[in-house]
């Protein structure tokens, strides 16, 4: 079945542990992925070829795969190279997400989308702005994600909370819209759907245990002492 049909009105769980933390191991990512599916996830977002290779045989839901890199000469981190696309497709990705912002990058976004489509996977554009989404649709992307809103210089003022404006703007383009980024509670997931999302991706609030723990610990420590 078309992955978009399976993901519509669905939850995608991004299983990306904190880099180099104790949970950053393929067998743990595979266990997280299975636990997410057991809890009702309709899809998964998985970073890296080793993690994808561990998760793919363990689940049957659609997988959105990415490869993250830290480049010296470009701020683009998500699937910047054509060979990244080949590696993720070979490891069983159904959908490959890429940075769809208009920033200096090693390979043009149009070439990345073309490589994704020729691999047989669908392309998900990780966008920061409406213009990113419009360009991505012209280039052949099948999903527009709000993933990078708040993470570029141009959108730094949106770094708090959910970008419902961008979700609604993408809805008006008649695209498949993925709300992604800082969806940290079930209530925010519902708000994303009301704003026009077709599906919602949740990462940190479900799979980055160190960060979730810190949210609770900080609140407890800053709570008033007198009762
Ligand atoms: C900006 C960027 O690099 N986002 C990444 C994309 O894969 C991940 O680090 C996020 O965890 C993911 O987008 C889910 O978002 P959140 O963790 O806020 O639920």
Automatic annotation (TrEMBL):
One of its GO terms (cellular component) is cytosol. The lineage of its organism: Bacteria, Pseudomonadati, Pseudomonadota, Alphaproteobacteria, Rhodobacterales. InterPro entries: Aldolase_TIM, NanE, RibuloseP-bd_barrel. The keyword Isomerase applies. This is Putative N-acetylmannosamine-6-phosphate 2-epimerase. GO terms for biological process: N-acetylmannosamine catabolic process; N-acetylneuraminate catabolic process. Keywords: Carbohydrate metabolism, Isomerase. Pathway: Amino-sugar metabolism; N-acetylneuraminate degradation; D-fructose 6-phosphate from N-acetylneuraminate: step 2/5; Amino-sugar metabolism; N-acetylneuraminate degradation; D-fructose 6-phosphate from N-acetylneuraminate: step 3/5.
